[in-house]
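User: Quick sanity check before I run a bigger batch. Here is a single chain. Can you write out its predicted 3D structure?
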Amino acid sequence: MNNSKQFFSTTSGIAGVLLVSMVMVNILTAGGDKFSPKTVGMGRAFVAASRGLDAVGMNPANLALDDRNATVTFNFAPIGFSVGSDLFNYKIYNDFFTGVPVIGADGKETRVGKELNEQDKKDILALFPSGIARTQLGVETSPIGLSMQIGDFGFAIVPSVQTVMNLDIPEGYMKFFLNGLDPTGSVYDLNGTAINASSVGEVNFSAAYKIPFSTSDIDEVAVGFGVKYLVGLGYIITEKYNSSISNSPLRTTPDDKGNLTDLNANFDFLQFTARMDPNSPEPVGSGLGFDFGVTGFLYNTVRVGVSVTDIGSIKWDKRTKAVIGSANMTIYSIADKEAQDSLKKAFKGKTIDTTGFEFDLPTALHVGMAVQMDDVIDDLPFRWLIAADLHLGFNEVAGNTKLAQYSIGMELDPLAGWLPLRTGIMVGGRERFAWSMGFGIHIANTFDLDFATQSIAIITTPESFRNGSVTMGMRLRL
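Assistant: Done. Predicted structure follows.
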């Protein structure tokens, strides 16, 4: 084998090992927005706009406010699913990874691999804002929910299951895939690789009270709280991840082992996991969480609200494992099966039993306002609600982020409650940007059927969309 063939064989082999290892990391676990179609359709602007069951887990104070004159409301199996990723970009895939059309000798069109130039590589690496490509997945559902409003009091109980996942992939993986081992020497930084995921069942009991207090400028002040009992079904968190792949400059002649370059791999990471036994229904964790909220009506025009959700923690104390990776290795021949196995093992780490561990819930602060425009604009022929929120997480656990997110949404009601239309946008957070839309079919103010998505951009800009979601739910009002 000549020098260049040996070098590129080494590059191809190590790329294959790394990519297979990445896939193995990605499928360690399968997994949010809440499952309220109204909330999702309005771009998650809920702090001042939510009512009834929509307020549970978001701003419990709103349970004390009128919810379309309903005394009792039932939720029937609402479900919400959302996924988004910097890596989901149909245009990039179509432009660079499906080949280019050519006309064969038989006159038929075929596709052959595209040779990427430097600008193509820059376009692909643009998928990694700030050097990290983020992916998030959320699935939430509830078998049934119940809310009641009695005078100035509001109550609700809602059982649910929530599965969320955050996955961070540094651009070092893609740079290696695109450039391989540089003949002049190269270093690929894999720091920041992380997978954080959890699956939790909960029962949320929330209550609110409208305080008998008002002034000429402030009215309808309400406070609320929620207590949730949590049952852990599965968990994985990356505590740290520091790794790199590098190679020495290409030598003109092989060394005494017949190699043209030395490949170095360094791994230093720690993950914690807890997973249910598929043959046993026993949960692997438990905990308590709390929500608090307050709302008020100012100047007979603007409703404002503040809430803090998911205060608390969950302890994972059954079937707990630690995944430890610590290796500094030099690989002289990637073609060697033993070297490939050693690299895979280093990338996966070593799994050992560990004692229980406790982690915080995705605690977040929410501040918002809402205006019922038809109460402000005289003779407006339909109901029109506008709301705006700020959401700020206090940690980076699964389903949360410290990146601030801003939401603005609206609900139009042109047919006196029969067909509410909703839309909204979200800016910031892990999603960075999302455009939502939804609608409802409400029959005689008794039965509601609602749908929403926070990824309407899949229709308007199908080549560059990066988020997908669908939410639906049914309600009976008495």
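Residues 3-26 form the longest helix (24 residues).

User: Great, the batch can go ahead then.
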